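Researcher: Structure prediction, please.
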Amino acid sequence: MKTKKHLLHLLLGLAVIAGVSLVVMLLWNWLIPHIFGGLAINYWQALGLLVLSRILLGGWGWHWRRFGHHRGDHNLIREKWMKMSPEERKELINKRREFLKGRGRAYKHFEDWNEFFGDSDADIPSEKTNE
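Model: Predicted structure follows.
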């Protein structure tokens, strides 16, 4: 059963590649000779152009998952913030305030740090509710 499923996926993948190559060839031959005076290309040249563009511009789709950017809508910093107690949040804010103190524009950007960070627990951002 798995072999049939893998074979079906392979055939479907080859059909998609063949279809996309055909579309690239037709679009190239319709646009490029008329706009830029270029030459028409055949099917195999369109397939080669597709492969070349994936190598030079798009990679193979591995880099996003490898570096953890393919996690959907998860905001890891927000999740960590929401798991902190109010005391831990206040401690993090104070550490960040001390770290940025005297570091030029990053620190001077905000006139009043208390306005930005807040000094009371009520000023600490909380989970927003969807209305």
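Model: The CA atoms of residues 82 and 128 lie 11 Å apart.
Researcher: Thanks, that helps.
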